[in-house]
């Protein structure tokens, strides 16, 4: 029923409880995969039920654990992962068709190859979701909000090509981003690089994998030892530029040009810090389970949980994001960003 | 004997003649592969010989023009052999590098605070070994190990950078490159950019069309800066006046190291502008870019030249590369580097 993961599993942040239970987020580290609706943690059973009882999480094996309601069971989660993989497969097929192709082979004169690839990849994903989960809502970067019902507990948030300039210039580091939100909380996140055939999958309560192998962030005690990535210095304006410079001046090596791939490298333990400004929800929601599931932390520049409610009239606000593999360098970064 | 390349082949820059014939550089655009020591260009024969006669190059396909004997100083069987060994070097370095990529290893900081790894050193050693076996009379200039030469003088120098983009390598980003150049009397006649994780290899050869994994490639047209995609590695690699000059050009994309030049040769990028490049980082780019129809010079529009020898200073250069002469000129006009 249960299997142990490797001893390199790092513990995750516990997020503070949010007053609104619909977006309560408790990420905890379980040293085993969830494959059944009753979990054993040490000698204690966690019972999963669909009643709305108070959630309480405790890793101590002698403490009495109350019933925990995640609102879905793990057979459901496996099914979501399965469909998530199909989405990434479908988007990847489309994207590989257009990558490094010249403009003159396309007959839509006013649209660039990247736009065609973006739209076609998103459509291929929407089609699969409409077939498999017709009651779920979808928020696509290209096509916006789509929902049969008025409300939905489940929202898929899609960005078919994050890093369009990389795609346009033939640089194989852009990513397809797929997130599934349950009551506003990301429970599944996928970063897929279809040319290199690398897929990072982050799932609530499970360890993040890269092409099926479990991964982990690495330790990093402070900024002066950190390798930092950001996409471009030109994406910071005004105060954000000044704040970023405070961190950038202290890190060991600042590097540029990776889009979402940098967060994937961080989850894999090759990068210590990623700091960006002006990210859209469809560009960070999928990163959250990936990074948290590998032992890292990802929040806004004030240290608050990144949260965005997808709905038919959502504004697509911009967010400042900081991600780190180690809580110490994360705290050092926040202290230097001084974003109050 | 000869085969025509595709009609997309662009003509190359003709570099001004240098007073010292040892480093005379004439890049020719020939719309066919050289596979024999007598070439037909239109209806004219170029005879290759080893006598030291004046070099004269004429690209005019008018069959009535008289062409003098041209001395490139080596023949094309030699060149094929150099390419063959060049491929072996890239294969060997690639084997080493793939062993260390995304594995944990010690990172040593050099005096200039740039990181170097065991992968750098081992990859370079593997290449040096192959060269010592195949061309014992050639000199070698390696980024890690410096100058190595059995003779007092040599016409041939192999210039090696096992990992250009060490920081990308260290952070698991698969866009660094192995750079291999062969100089003949100071002129790069062979250039290789190899990405061993993606298994992509660009090969540029004097007088031939550049290939990517065996397929011929070409830069793309770009009339002006406003339409150009520009790459540079990092904003921190420009200092003082160079920073000011670069800012006059346009907002760039970042983070590619040598891979940006490879993308330019393939026609996906229009401009690459960098400051402070070392010879082992640009010499291999020259045949790759010129052989695909592009242009690569310093910021004053002068040919990039570096004489490798036992007491070479490893000077730094400002480099601009473009796929189209028009956007190249536009960039120079904005850099205003006089």
TrEMBL record, chain A:
Biological process according to GO: L-histidine biosynthetic process
InterPro entries registered for this protein in UniProt: His_9_proposed, Inositol_monoP_metal-BS, Inositol_monoP_superfamily, Inositol_monophosphatase-like
Catalytic activity entry: L-histidinol phosphate + H2O = L-histidinol + phosphate
Keyword field: Amino-acid biosynthesis, Histidine biosynthesis, Hydrolase, Magnesium, Metal-binding
Cofactor(s) listed in the protein's UniProt record: Mg(2+)
GO molecular function: histidinol-phosphatase activity; metal ion binding
EC number: 3.1.3.15
Main enzyme class: hydrolase
Positions contributing to Mg(2+) binding: 141, 159, 161-162, 283
Metabolic or biological pathway: Amino-acid biosynthesis; L-histidine biosynthesis; L-histidine from 5-phospho-alpha-D-ribose 1-diphosphate: step 8/9
UniProt xrefs under PANTHER family: 3'(2'),5'-BISPHOSPHATE NUCLEOTIDASE, PHOSPHATASE
Family: Belongs to the inositol monophosphatase superfamily.
Entry-linked NCBIfam families: his_9_HisN
Protein name per its UniProtKB record: histidinol-phosphatase
From TrEMBL, chain B:
Keyword flag Nucleotidyltransferase: no
GO molecular function: histidinol-phosphatase activity; metal ion binding
The protein's required cofactors: Mg(2+)
Keyword entries, A-Z: Amino-acid biosynthesis, Histidine biosynthesis, Hydrolase, Magnesium, Metal-binding
Enzyme class: hydrolase
E.C. designation(s): 3.1.3.15
Protein name per Swiss-Prot or TrEMBL: histidinol-phosphatase
Natural source organism: Olea europaea subsp. europaea
């Amino acid at each position: 029923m249960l299997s142990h993961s490797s001893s390199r599993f790092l513990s995750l942040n516990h997020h503070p409880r949010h007053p609104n239970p619909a977006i309560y987020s408790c990420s905890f580290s379980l040293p085993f995969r969830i494959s059944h609706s009753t979990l054993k943690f040490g000698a204690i059973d966690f019972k999963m039920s669909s009643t709305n009882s108070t959630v309480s999480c405790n890793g101590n094996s002698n403490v009495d654990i109350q019933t925990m309601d995640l609102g879905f069971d793990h057979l459901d989660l496996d099914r979501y992962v399965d469909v998530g993989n199909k989405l990434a497969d479908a988007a990847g097929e489309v994207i590989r068709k257009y990558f490094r192709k010249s403009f003159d082979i396309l007959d839509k004169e006013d649209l660039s190859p990247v736009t065609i690839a973006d739209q076609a990849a998103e459509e291929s994903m929407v089609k699969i979701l409409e077939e498999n989960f017709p009651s779920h809502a979808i928020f696509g970067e290209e096509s916006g909000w789509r929902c049969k019902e008025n409300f939905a507990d489940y929202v898929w948030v899609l960005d078919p090509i994050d890093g369009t300039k990389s795609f346009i210039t033939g640089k194989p580091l852009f990513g397809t981003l797929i997130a599934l939100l349950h009551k506003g909380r990301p429970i599944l996140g996928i970063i897929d690089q279809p040319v290199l055939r690398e897929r990072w999958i982050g799932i609530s309560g499970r360890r993040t994998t890269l092409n099926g192998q479990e991964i982990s962030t690495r330790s990093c005690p402070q900024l002066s030892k950190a390798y930092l990535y950001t996409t471009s210095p030109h994406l910071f304006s005004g105060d954000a530029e000044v704040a970023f410079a405070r961190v950038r001046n202290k890190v060991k090596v600042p590097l540029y040009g990776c889009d979402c791939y940098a967060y994937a490298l961080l989850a894999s333990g090759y990068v210590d810090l990623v700091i960006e400004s002006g990210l859209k929800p469809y560009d960070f929601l999928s990163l959250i389970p990936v990074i948290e599931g590998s032992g890292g932390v990802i929040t806004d520049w004030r240290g608050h949980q990144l949260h965005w409610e997808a709905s038919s009239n959502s504004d697509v606000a911009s967010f400042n994001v900081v991600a780190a593999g180690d809580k110490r360098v994360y705290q050092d970064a926040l202290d230097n960003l001084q974003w109050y």
